[in-house]
Write a structure and sequence with these properties.
This protein is an alpha/beta fold. It is 37% helix and 22% strand. The chain has 15 helices and 16 strands. The strands form 3 sheets. Strands 6, 7, 8, 9, 10, 11, 12, 13, 14, 15 and 16 form an 11-stranded mixed beta sheet that branches. A 3-stranded parallel beta sheet has the order 3-4-5, with helices on both faces. A two-stranded parallel sheet has the order 1-2. The protein is elongated, with a radius of gyration of 24 Å. The model has no long low-confidence stretch (mean pLDDT 93).
């Protein structure tokens, strides 16, 4: 085991507590024999005396008695170098490191395939939800059409607090940090980067293409206002930070952004720090996977599931292993990645405008020039003595490029008093 933080300790504890049950499932016992960690004394106090504790990772990776290396240190380096070293030595690798896989997964999977070892990563996406196994094995008969998921619990907690308690984004973020849901530096979570890394992995498994984090359009929740959450509710929608990947006739979409979701969809009602993922397959239809996306023992559950899989297949012919990314290497075909400008979806607009005649006509004319039709509209009644108001619109499907051009024209109108707030909308049918 490389690293002995929250997930490492959780994994060790669950292995110890459920060792008989796990051995019955795996067909043989799974033992932690060596741990690499900076604080050797602290780790030694937490494990049994027969577990060797080393101050550096190389001693564990190069130990001939180790069959499986469990990488839990996170980040890009030295995690990548250590994983490649373990693979080169013929050891299986289990990791929970979505950042490493999103950036270096193609290299790592190629190396593992060349050495005939397994690189397992269930815990890298959605914590305790067995989404990798479901997508890679349970849905193998399906042509996957799209995936849409809440796969960052921090952002979902913040949006839930903004909706339920009417908090501003900044106040909800501070509450998330106080409760331990958000890091001191929450950038990766609130800007959608964490979700994009996980989505890049899911998209590769779904469509049989190389992992391509560079293709992901990423937009976080930092600019969301509580007014937009309130208006969305009035229109019958809830705002969620969704990670979406779709296979279209033109190519593959890969995007993370705040999204209006109809209230009647189950995923719209996922609250707090929980995760949920919808997958649409041509045979099965739409399936939903829900559960905790982080935490010591939920993540340990996924890590140990990988350990059991590796243990079951430890002596099997490598040609009979489940492919790392669901498809055999010879079957992975190139598909174009779509720019967000080429995506088609419907939209929510909030426009701060002067309260005077002709404003709405000017706006609708500019939308019509971009072939953007209106699905629903309402105007907030201005308070007494107020000379400006909000216009809120929902549109039918439109091309993002046309929407951007229309917004630029609308913002140039003298009666439009602030930048247009634009959010995307998904029906998820």
């Amino acid at each position: 085991m490389l690293g002995f933080g929250t997930v490492g300790r959780g994994t060790y504890e669950v292995l110890r507590r459920n060792q008989l049950e796990i051995a019955r499932r795996a067909g043989r016992g799974i033992e932690v024999t060596a741990i690499a960690v900076r604080d050797v004394d602290k780790a030694r106090a937490s494990v049994s005396p027969d577990v060797r504790v080393f101050p550096n990772c190389e001693d564990v990776v190069r130990n001939p008695d180790v069959d499986i290396v469990l990488e839990l240190i996170g980040g890009y380096e030295p995690a990548r170098a250590l994983a490649l070293d373990a693979i080169a030595r013929g050891k299986h690798v289990v990791t929970a490191n979505k950042a490493m896989l999103a950036r270096h997964g193609n290299e790592l999977f190629d190396a593992a395939r060349g050495k005939g070892v397994m690189l397992a990563f269930e815990a890298a996406v959605a914590g305790g939800i067995p989404i990798i196994k479901a997508l890679r094995e349970g849905l193998t008969a399906n042509r996957i059409e799209w995936i849409a998921g809440i796969i960052n619990g921090t952002s979902n907690f913040i949006l839930s607090e903004m909706r339920a308690r009417g908090l501003t984004f900044d106040t909800a973020l501070k509450e998330a940090q106080r409760l331990g849901y958000a890091e001191a530096d929450p950038t990766f979570d609130i800007e959608g980067i964490d979700a994009a890394q996980k989505l890049a992995i899911l998209s590769s498994i779904a469509f049989g293409v190389p992992i391509n984090i560079e293709a992901a359009y990423t937009e976080g929740i930092t600019r969301l206002a509580k007014e937009d959450i309130k208006y969305a509710e009035q229109l019958g929608y809830r705002i969620k930070l969704l990670a979406i990947t779709k296979r279209t006739a033109a190519g593959i979409e890969l995007r993370v952004h705040p999204t209006l979701v109809p209230l009647q969809r189950l995923i719209a009602n996922v609250e707090g720090a929980m995760n949920a993922i919808l997958i649409k397959g041509d045979a099965v239809g739409t399936t939903l996977y829900y559960g905790p996306g982080a935490g010591a023992e939920p993540t340990a559950s996924a890590v140990i599931a990988d350990l059991v899989d590796v243990t079951r297949l430890h002596t099997a012919d490598p040609e009979n292993h489940v492919p790392h990314l669901a498809f055999q290497a010879s079957g992975a075909g190139p598909l174009p990645w779509l720019s967000v400008d080429d995506t088609v979806t419907s939209y929510y607009f909030r426009m701060r405008v002067a309260d005077q005649p002709g404003v709405l006509a000017d706006i609708t004319r500019n939308l019509a020039e971009g072939n953007i039709s209106i699905d629903a509209l309402f105007q907030r009644e201005p308070s007494e003595g107020e000379n400006q108001t909000d216009i809120i619109m929902l549109t039918h499907d439109a091309i993002e490029r046309d929407v951007n051009a229309a917004i630029a024209r609308i913002e140039a109108l003298p009666t439009v008093l602030a930048p247009v707030i634009r959010l995307r909308q998904e029906e998820l049918l």
